[in-house]
Amino acid sequence: MKKIILAIVVFASIFAMVYFNLEPGDDPQPPINENAPVVTGEVIELIFPADRYPETAEHIQNAIESGHPSTCTIDRNGADDNRKESLRGIDTKKGKDRDEWPMAMCAEGGEGADIEYISPSDNRGAGSWVGNQLEGYPDGTLVEFIFE
What is the pTM of this model? Predict the structure, then answer.
C-alpha cells in the first residue's frame, strides 16, 4: 500500500512539473509583477476631514456610492501612470482641478477612476493632507477612507 501511495505522489509530481513546464527546484507560483505593491496586510482607517475639504469628500463619497472602492492600496510608484490613465480624454477647465477617485497613488486608481471638477484649493489641500497622513506607511498598506 505504501508503494502505491508513493508511486501516486511521484507520478503527480512529475505530471505537475511537465504540465507547468517546471524544472526540479522551480517555484510553481506565477511570477510576481515587480511593479505591483506588496500588500502588507496592514489596514488603517483614515478619518477624512470633510469639513476642511468638502468638495473632495463629497466627490469620494459619491464615487464610492456609485461602486468605486472605499479603500486604497498605497502604490506610490504607480501614481504617475495611474494619473495619465485616469485623466486621459478628460478636458481641463479653467479654475478647476480634475479630482480622481480612487486617487492616483492608489493601486486601484487609473483607468476607470471617477473624475470630478473641483476647486484647486480643495483638491490640492486634500491631496497634501492625505499624503502627510500616509507618509509613514509603506506601499501595499490598505487604507480605508472614513467620513464622519
Answer: 0.71
